[in-house]
Specification:
Elements: H1 24-33, E1 44-47, E2 55-62, E3 68-69, H2 72-84, E4 89-94, H3 103-108, E5 114-124, H4 127-135, E6 143-146, H5 162-179
Parallel strand pairs: 1-5, 2-4
Antiparallel strand pairs: 2-3, 2-5, 5-6
Helix pairs in contact: 2-5
């Protein structure tokens, strides 16, 4: 991002704390700064768990009854950026049953241009969860990214794949170039 100073956007890089304890860091940041930002002109890119896996995941929305969707045009641009760099991608909808990430604070505050990116290998969603998603009208497909390694003994630097990080960076750079 530093090398791309010609972008016509302001860039703020923030690192959140206490996600697993309840998204406290991002919630505090959004509560303090959201009034200084325009939800229509603010783009949030949340990067979480991108060090391994063969597929880039974008969160399409959050919650249940009512859900908070991410801007559809933003998701389409993300998918185009992934195609431009040859990366596989999938959309996922997060619920209290599946967990969340720091983009939720933004969506809850009315910032629907909040792209949350993760990685994993694609695995089928278990039939009981697929049925529950259908009953609760959660827009989920038949697959999801496997992030079962998070907070486990294999969640270590030795298992981070540099090629996964590189592809994620290239996809984000391609995405940002589509925003201009």
């Amino acid at each position: 991002l530093v090398q791309r100073r010609t972008m016509a956007v302001d860039v703020v890089v923030a690192f959140w704390a206490a996600e697993e304890a309840g998204l406290w860091g991002s919630e505090a940041f959004v509560a303090k700064h959201r009034h200084h930002l325009d939800p229509q002109n603010t783009l949030i890119i949340n990067v979480d768990t991108v060090g391994r896996g063969t597929c880039l995941m974008a969160v399409a929305g959050e919650g249940m009854l009512p859900g908070r969707p991410v801007d559809e045009v933003l998701l389409q641009k993300w998918e185009q950026a992934c195609r431009n760099v040859g990366a596989r991608t999938i959309r996922e909808w997060l619920t209290p049953l599946s967990g969340s990430s720091d983009h939720a604070a933004w969506l809850n505050a009315g910032f629907n241009r909040a792209l949350s990116v993760g990685r994993g290998d694609l695995v089928p969603i278990a039939l009981p969860i697929r049925l529950l998603n259908r009953i609760l009208a959660v827009p989920a497909g038949a697959q999801q990214t496997d992030v079962s390694h998070i907070h486990s003994p294999v969640d270590s630097l030795e298992n981070v794949r540099p090629e996964s990080l590189d592809e994620t960076c290239r996809a984000i750079q391609a995405f940002l170039s589509l925003q201009l």
